[in-house]
UniProtKB/TrEMBL annotation:
Family stated for the protein in its record: Belongs to the tetraspanin (TM4SF) family.
Organism name: Heracleum sosnowskyi
Keyword Transmembrane helix appears in the UniProt entry: yes
InterPro entries to which the protein is assigned, alphabetical: TET_plant (IPR044991), Tetraspanin/Peripherin (IPR018499)
Native organism taxonomy: Eukaryota, Viridiplantae, Streptophyta, Embryophyta, Tracheophyta
Coiled coil: none
Keyword Transmembrane applies: yes
Protein localization: Membrane
The protein's name: Tetraspanin-10
Length: 264
């Protein structure tokens, strides 16, 4: 690849990623001013990501613009580290999300989930009192459970719908408890539970209690996280392929810049 072509590509790619970094940083600042503590918890990772993208992009842009082999070396080293990090994270994501799946229940269109089916990493994170206290607070604020009765007007409609893992695990008691449903968000707890599972005793019809302390709720969150992580992992594979091509072009630009410097 010629000097002009490689440096031109690297220059414009990094100019575009600079704009992306500014957008990510702006989003992070917006999140930091948001009053919702659940969104605030993501502020530092978002700002960190934006900062890394900005730093790598500015070094790559200046290196290609000035045809500076030193800056391009630094750019390639940083880009290589990013590629390694993406690869490691993607492999770990697939390993961690390899376990766990829902269980079908007769008469229901949706699945129920059990915490023990998931990887030890999920168990450790979700069984942590500190972690779960934060997650539970976010689940209560999301108000998904309280909206079920508005979303599903009749009990028949509720039973025929495919609930999300969080709705199935956190908003209702497990089916094995045997509590009759009065509507989408209220169960008759006067019946003695069929199962001895602790979730049956933990569930309450109260708005801020529901089944938020249940293992079934933790399992629902684990399933949600598993799905999200799989999407991120697949996106990372695509990103890895794109960055690998950029890395190759960057190598050409660095090599050509070194040759030009030697000639001079």
């Amino acid at each position: 690849m010629s000097t002009g072509t490689s440096t031109f590509i690297i220059r414009w790619i990094n100019f575009l990623t600079l704009l992306l970094a500014v957008g990510v940083l702006g989003f992070g600042v917006w999140m930091s001013m948001h009053h919702d503590s659940c969104r605030k918890s993501l502020t530092l990772p978002v700002l960190g990501l934006g900062g890394v993208i900005f730093l790598i992009s500015i070094i790559g842009f200046l290196g290609a613009w000035k045809k500076n082999s030193v800056l391009l070396w630094i750019y390639l080293v940083m880009l290589f580290l990013v590629l390694v990090a993406i690869l490691v994270f993607t492999v770990l994501a697939f390993i961690i999300t390899n376990n766990g799946s829902g269980h079908t229940v007769n008469g229901l269109k949706y699945k129920e989930y059990e915490l023990r089916d998931y990887s030890s990493w999920f168990l450790k994170q979700l069984n942590s009192t500190h972690n779960w206290k934060k997650l539970k607070s976010c689940l209560v604020k999301a108000d998904d459970c309280n909206n079920l009765s508005k979303k599903y007007k009749t009990l028949k409609q509720f039973k025929l719908e495919k609930l999300t893992p969080i709705e199935a695990g956190c908003c209702r008691p497990p089916s094995k408890c045997g509590y009759p449903a009065v509507n989408a968000s209220y169960y008759d707890l006067s019946f003695h539970p069929i199962s001895a599972d602790k979730d049956c005793k933990l569930y309450k019809n109260t708005k801020n209690v529901r089944c938020y302390s249940c293992d079934s709720c933790k399992a629902g969150v684990a399933q949600y996280m598993k799905t999200e992580w799989r999407v991120v992992a697949i996106f990372n594979l695509i990103l890895f392929a794109v960055l690998s091509i950029i890395y190759f072009v960057g190598c050409c630009a660095r090599r050509n810049a070194s040759r030009n410097r030697t000639k001079v």
